Amino acid sequence: MGIAAIILDLKSVRAWIAYYVPDSVMGDLAFMGLMLTAGFVLAMIVKLIVKLVEKYVTTATETDLDDKVLSLVNQSIAQVIYIIAFYFSFDEIREHFSEHSQKIIIGIAVTIFVFLICRFFSRLFDIVLQWFIENVASKTETSIDDELAPLIDRLVKIFIYVAGTGVVLKYFDVDLTGLAIGGAAVSFAVGYASQDTLANMIAGFVIMIDRPFRVGDRVKMVTSGLIGDVIRIGLRSTKILNFDNHVVIIPNSEIAKSQLINLSYPDPASRIKLDIPVAYGTDVNMVKALLVNLAKAHPEVLEDPEPKSFFIEFKDSELLLTLICRVSHYKDEFRVAEDLRLAIEKSFRENGIVIPFPQIVVHQRENGK
User: Fold this and answer.
1) CATH, domain range 213-262
2) Long-range pairs, 324-327, Cβ under 8 A, ≥24
3) What CA–CA distance (Å, rounded) separates 157 from 365?
């Protein structure tokens, strides 16, 4: 009697056993033993097939993900087949047991089966997640996906085992309505208590998808005026190193709703703008040419776009000019700006150009005149 006949025609198998084992109890025990043996043989065949697939197929791929998945299947398949074989064999001999005993025995089998399935999918998700962390998350410039992975792992496993528990309770005719209402109430309470955390996490997802900045970028918060380098992008907050060498921790929800300037993207080149006052009566065109020449003479000032100078405003005690030029990287901005200020101050002294200071002229009237 082959395995296919055992699976497809259980009644014939029972009749065949009854012919050689007339006692009904012993015959049923023999039938169960035969079914379990057939399940064992089938499990060995399936494991052999999976092993062959693992040997001849996975060697052609560069990733070890398929190797681990097939190894997990090979470990789990035998246990599942044993439970299925037990269920079918017991289903054929259940008349020897009371309805209550049948319910308990099959319930135990269903519980074990559901547990095995949940454990399989839980381990399968572990394998996929670990592969993602090692091959994808480790290569990204943000740490959000690294921090998000453990959270997703816990949530998915909770969902898997909660779903499995629901299936088992449903089999035992347990009313799930009360549990669902209680779970909803608990979820609402937890969500309300942690709404700030959830807001930061959602903002973290937005930052991860939109990627307005990356680790190493220099950013400026428009509202607060904070300028610094991004050193870490977390799930709940972002850390920025300011010019005082202090780490400023900003919740992601604040970043998501604030205006932010990324000084590094799309080009790290930065503009230098210097306001230079000169005294009334100074030759403005001569000063403009002088400022442009000083900027062009600096080796780190870019030629394109070329430096320019503009006459901006008539002020109370001065004529205000401005010099605009660019450097290739924002990290050079302050140093080059200082070099230009020093060069301008020296050139003004050498050419007799006066930098005025604020002054007020007071006219005093005598004898009421």
Assistant:
1) 2.30.30.60
2) 324/271, 324/272, 324/273, 324/274, 325/271, 325/272, 325/295, 325/301, 326/269, 326/270, 326/271, 326/272, 326/301, 326/302, 327/269, 327/270, 327/272, 327/300, 327/301, 327/302
3) 90
Which CA distances in Å does 140 have to 105, 135, 143, 204, 240?
51, 10, 8, 15, 18
pLDDT in tens, 26-47: 666 666 677 777 777 777 777 7
Residue ranges of the domains in the chain? 3-191, 213-262, 270-351
Q: Which CATH class is domain 270-351?
A: alpha beta
Q: pTM (2 decimals)?
A: 0.52
Question: What number of residues does the chain have?
Answer: 369
CA 40 → CA 80, 117, 201, distances in Å?
A: 11, 18, 49
Nearest to 302 by CA among 336, 277, 279: 336
Nearest alpha-carbon partner for 41 in 6, 76, 93:
6
pLDDT for residue 4 is more than 50: no
DSSP state of 365: P
- Spatial separation of the C-alpha atoms in residues 54 and 56, rounded to whole Å: 6
CA distance 97 to 104: 10
